[in-house]
Amino acid sequence: MPSEHPTLADYLASWSQGDPVLIAVAETISALTAASAELSRLIAEGPFVRGLGETIGDAGGGDVKKFLDVESHKLFKSALEKAPVAAMGSEEADAAEVLNDGAALVVAIDPLDGSSNIDTNVSIGTIFSVLPVPDGMSPDAALLQAGKEQVASGFILYGPQTTLVVTVRDGTHIFTMAPDDRVFQLTRRDLKIAPDKAEYAINASNERHWPAAVQAYMRDLKAGRDGPRRQDFNMRWVGSLVAEAYRILIRGGIFLYPGDARKGYEKGRLRLVYEAIPLALLMSQAGGAATDGVTPILDIEPESLHQRVSLVFGPPDEVERIAQYYEARPGDGNSPLFSERGLLRG
Ligand code: FDP
Fold this sequence. Notes:
There is one protein chain. The chain is an alpha+beta fold. It has 2 domains: about 10-190, 2-Layer Sandwich (Fructose-1,6-Bisphosphatase, Chain A, domain 1), CATH 3.30.540.10; about 200-340, D-Maltodextrin-Binding Protein, domain 2. The chain has helices spanning about 10-15, 20-45, 65-80, 140, 210-220, 240-250, 270-285, 315-325, 340-345, and strands at about 55-60, 65, 85-90, 95-100, 105-115, 125-130, 150-160, 160-165, 170-175, 185-190, 200, 235, 255, 270, 290, 310, 310-315. The protein has an 8-stranded mixed beta sheet, with helices on both faces. It has a 5-stranded mixed beta sheet with strand order 12-11-13-17-15, sandwiched between helices. The chain has a two-stranded antiparallel ribbon with strand order 1-2. Strand 11, helix 5 and strand 12 form a beta-alpha-beta unit. It is globular, with a radius of gyration of 20 Å. The protein starts with 7 loop residues before the first helix and ends with a helix. About 50% of the residues are buried. 2,6-di-O-phosphono-beta-D-fructofuranose binds next to loops.
């Protein structure tokens, strides 16, 4: 009798069906999750490991580098060296790193997202995107393909449970790591984002810097049942992108980290290639949507590995509503494609 909770290995084996390209994707996901199981143990050791949450440098643009960021990068790099991966583009390295010449895939990765939460014992995670290397394309260029070219993406959440949220373009599924044998097992198949949860996630301390479109949208949400939305909205802000994404996949709601008027934040804070793009595929496979406010994230052609982007995700109707606020304020949009879409629509 098939198990109620098939293992990740079983799921990937039955999905890949002996196809060499799909097997390569399966091997890559297995390598990533094996490293994540090790990382989860290291995180759980917390104060028993000297300096785990310690800041060891400045990564620039408001980001600090912590000991655990560096350790996570090393763990994933050494795991991917043994997988069919030609290059890895990581938040923790300035340029893409070559792993296996001629291999079929590349991986973009944020080895440790939410690292400012390490020392507060709040959920943190690893986000990854798997892309093919088309014939004649260099691994560097392969890392900069639009998100719609991804063959798989996911994140591992190190929280009360260690959880993998993954898609191989066959729905978005959750695998939970069993505490005893540390094997990932399927615990939720084919997630679908709830369309109407009245909950938002945004760093409200930046309100005065937001574009007028976001200020107007948020004003309408906060007006609750006395405003145009005619219902009260709740707020949640964990400060770990992976935790917000997980909550929204599980119970709905909307996430915004818009570009704003602060120096260095004009294009937002979050990274396109290894944060927004993988989350956008998970969202779309769960019936949701992700944009930079206006343009679908999966359609954006990245220009550089560490590029920042404005990010909005959640149920499609709410994401579209936000685009309308931007469109109602020409010149206020933070998207270079803003006017293009306006023209296209017109
Ligand atoms: P962190 O810098 O701690 O890694 O990815 C960057 C990120 O965290 C996200 O996880 C989180 O949503 C965001 O930054 C928090 O930024 P603010 O401190 O500006 O709210």
